[in-house]
Design a protein that fits this description.
- By secondary structure, the chain is α/β, with parallel strands linked by helices.
- The protein folds into 2 domains: 202 residues, Rossmann fold; 68 residues, Helicase, Ruva Protein, domain 3, CATH 1.10.8.100.
- 40% of the residues lie in helices and 18% in strands.
- Helix 4 links the parallel strand 3 and strand 4.
- It is elongated, with a radius of gyration of 21 Å.
- It starts with 6 loop residues before the first helix and ends with a helix.
């Protein structure tokens, strides 16, 4: 099958099927073989691997994955792309295409059925508008995975690896760093895509921690606190958390916890490190 990383081949397929890009699905297809090679090598795909690809599009990266992995499961939301994928992937017998919304798919079940419950690798060129829910969903549902190698908007990639006190620091930074080790492996300019996006992109690899870097008694409660802290960034933690409607979290309990931690009552969420959020969660749970 023709390599879709070559722009001319992508254009031919799109014309053959009279494909129309859907803005609502945030579709931008990769047309750069160097970037595709870089993604495959950064993801460390081997003949042993079962790979989950999110948003295969016309199958550009899927072809590369199928050449390198034992098995590829590709989840595509756009029905119009299914006949195209049947065509572009017809020479591979190790690819399963699922026409569904990744946020509604039971990925744990897929991993159990297709890989005997052993960790998979996730690779994706993600639509920018749902990058965060997809990543959070993979982590919070405790999908068995080794790594996630994804193309995202450059500023989102930056946000995943920054620390406290920067304007990009937020719930996503903390979640990614709690579950994984983030590393930007390539910056990708807009001309590597069709149609061209208005922003730069980056490939980031998130390598799953075998053990989280901090110990917390109730992970979900900690992330409820983290989200509430950044929902109203300008507010102090005392005000932001006590207004968030989290059960048992009041102005008094937050004040007491911060005092016990030796932190000023004027502090904002953006100043706390992951360890401090874990300690705060444990103290508020005890209250």
């Amino acid at each position: 099958m023709a390599n879709l990383g070559i722009p001319q081949n992508t254009i031919e397929i799109l014309q053959k099927y009279q494909f129309r890009f859907q803005k609502k699905f945030g579709q931008n297809f990769l047309i750069d073989t160097h970037v595709l090679d870089k993604i495959i090598s950064s993801a460390g795909i081997t003949g042993e691997d079962c790979v989950l690809e999110i948003g295969p599009g016309i199958g550009t990266m899927t072809q590369y994955l199928a050449e390198n992995a034992r098995e590829v499961i590709a989840v595509e939301i756009d029905k119009a792309l299914i006949p195209i994928l049947e065509d572009t992937l017809s020479s591979y017998d190790n690819v399963t295409v699922i026409n569904d919304d990744i946020l509604k798919v039971d990925i744990n079940r897929i991993v159990k059925e297709q890989n005997g419950g052993k960790p998979i690798k996730v690779v994706a060129n993600l639509p920018y508008y749902i990058t965060t829910p997809i990543i959070m969903g993979l982590f919070e549902n405790h999908v068995p995975l080794e790594s996630i190698t994804i193309m995202v908007q450059k500023e989102v990639a930056d946000r995943m690896q920054v620390g406290p006190g920067t304007k990009d620091y937020g719930a996503l930074s903390l979640a990614v760093q709690y579950y994984a080790e983030p590393k930007i492996v390539a910056n990708v300019p807009p001309n590597c895509f069709m149609p061209r996006p208005n922003v730069g992109s980056a490939v980031i690899r998130l390598t799953r921690h075998s053990e989280p870097p901090v110990v917390v008694k109730n992970e979900k409660f900690m992330f409820d606190l983290i989200r509430a802290s950044f929902n109203q960034r300008r507010k102090t933690l005392v005000n932001g958390l006590s207004n968030a409607g989290i059960s048992g979290v009041t102005k008094e309990t937050v004040t007491a916890a911060l005092e016990a931690m030796g932190l000023p009552l004027t502090i904002r969420g953006e100043a706390l490190m992951l360890e401090q959020f874990a300690e705060l969660a444990d103290r508020l749970k005890e209250e």
